[in-house]
Amino acid sequence: MAIKLSRPAERGRTASAADIPRPQALKAGNKTPDDRLELAVRPRRNRRAEWSRRMVREHVLTTDDLIWPLFLVDGRKIRAPVASMPDVERLSVDEAVRAAERAAKLTIPCLALFPYTDPGLRDEAGAEALNPDNLVCRAIRAIKKEVPDIGVLCDVALDPYTSHGHDGLLRDGVILNDETVAVLARQALVQAEAGCDIIAPSDMMDGRIGAIRAGLDAAGFTDVQIMAYAAKYASVFYGPFRDAVGSSVTLTGDKRTYQMDPANSDEALREVELDVAEGADMIMVKPGLPYLDILHRVKATFGMPTFAYQVSGEYAMIMAAAGHGWLDGEKAMLESLVAFKRAGADGVLTYFAQRVAEKLKKDGV
Length: 365
Ligand code: PBG
Hints:
Blueprint: H1 50-56, E1 66-72, E2 79-81, E3 89-91, H2 93-105, E4 110-115, H3 135-146, E5 151-156, E6 170-171, E7 174-175, H4 178-194, E8 198-201, H5 208-218, E9 225-232, H6 239-245, H7 266-278, E10 282-286, H8 292-302, E11 306-310, H9 312-323, H10 329-343, E12 347-350, H11 353-362
Parallel strand pairs: 1-3, 1-4, 1-12, 4-5, 5-8, 8-9, 9-10, 10-11, 11-12
Antiparallel strand pairs: 2-3, 6-7
Helix pairs in contact: 2-3, 4-5, 7-8, 9-10
Ligand PBG binds at residues 155, 157, 159, 167, 202, 238, 241-242, 255, 311-312.
C-alpha cells in the first residue's frame, strides 16, 4: 500500500489542483493540522510509552531461558579468573556447588559443566574422560547431592582430556569417527552414572547421537536427555573457551574436518535431521549471534526444543567493548539475549546467565 503524503482525492470526484500535494506540507517543522501526513497507520503509536511497549512485546526473556556454563578446576576454595573472559572463573567443586545454590535461588533451571583437566591427566586417547572419578563426575555428584533440583548438563567430547586438544581420537593426522563414537558412548555412560541429567555431545562425529542413546538405554538410563550440538560450526569464537579449559595450548591444527563450515546453511538442517532421527531430545545451534539465521531455520523446520550457545568469544567481545566504555555492557547483554528468543530459541547457554538472572529478578520478571 502506498503511503499518502497529503490528503487523498475524495471518492467520486476527479482530482483538482487542491488535491495535488503542496510541497510545504512536507517541510520539517510545519505543524498546522492541515499539513499533517495523512497516515492511517502509525506504527509509532504502540511505542509511545513503556506500558504500551510492554503490551505489544513479542518476546520476553526469563530466567527459564538460561543455561549457565561453569568451568571446573581441581582443588578447594578456588576461583581462578579466565583472562579472556572477564568475570568468569574456573571453580573448584565446592565453589561450583555454591554457584549451583546461587543458580537455584535465581531460578536458573540448568548448569553446563566444563572441566579444566590437569595437563598431567591428558593423553592421546583422552582416557580421563572415562574415569568415573574425574573432575566433572565429582562435580555432578556434589551438585546433585546439595542442589538436587537443578538440571546438570555435560559436554560429551574428548577435547578437555586429549593431549592434542581434539574432540576425537587422532591417528596419522586424522580424527577417527567410529572409534571416537565408541569412546563417546562410554563417556556419556560415565557421566549418566554420576547423575548427569542432560548429555550434550559437542564433538560432531557422525552417528554419535544414535550410539549414545543406545548405550544409555541399554544401561537403563532411558530418562537421561540428549541435547545434541547438532549444528556446530568450526568457529574462531571458541577461542576464550579453549583458554578456559586449557585446550588452546594443546590443540594442534583446527577442527574443520568435523565441525561445520561457516559458509553452510542447508547442511545444518541435514545435521539436525540426523540427530533428531537418532534420538536427540533437544537441539543446539552454536555459535549464537553470528548464526541466528541457522537457529531460525532449525526451529522453523523441526519445531524441536532448540537452544543457542552464546559462546565465549561473543561474551568476550561484549565484555571487552563494555570494559573500554565503548558500549553499555548490560544493555548489550539483554539485547543479545532477546535476539536469540526472537530468532526462535527456547533457551540460551550464556556466560551472562547469573548476571542477567540477577537483573531479571531485580526488575521483577
Ligand atoms: C568442546 C566445546 C567447545 C565449546 C563447547 N564445547 C570448544 C570447541 O569445540 O573447540 C565452545 C564453547 C564456547 O566457546 O563458549 N567440544
